[in-house]
Design goal:
By secondary structure, this protein is mainly beta. It has strands at 28-29, 36-37, 40-41, 45-46, 53-54, 65-66, 73-79, 84-85, 99-100, 104-108, 111-120, 128-133, 140-149, 152-153, 158-162. The chain is globular, with a radius of gyration of 19 Å.
Amino acid sequence: MQYVPESLWVKGSASAPFTITADTVKPGLLAPASFTIGGVQYAVALFPDNVTYVLSPGAISGISSRRARPGDTITIYGIGFGSVSPGIPPGQLASQLNAIAAPLVVRLGGTEATVSYKGLAPNFVGLYQFKVVIPAIATGDTVPLTFSLGGVAGTQNLSIAVGN
């Protein structure tokens, strides 16, 4: 049975069937427009308190922020990173720890970071969570954050703030 949205109906009859292509993997990290500061797009990254963001202090009025330091573990969120093991069907709450099936590499300032957890976020639907340990890198307020999934580079141009 093929679903045809009502918006495509004309005078009570459906349009001709058409094919939709769905990607099994289309990864992206959480980086809303409100995290664009001075023309730089920052990823939404949180410290373990889930209140303090990884940005230069005072970067966004009204939110608590500080620079990450080497050795800190931060949490980054994303969508579209594909299947996990053990399998959790699309549309279901992630009720157990899991791991994305494809290899994930996260780099900060060009240096590969340790990712201690990479899977669906517990108690959410379709939200991926990554626990990233900040490597020993040069500090700055616009440290590039890149990732690759299954050997394919992500397309976002993101930064985070790293200090001493």
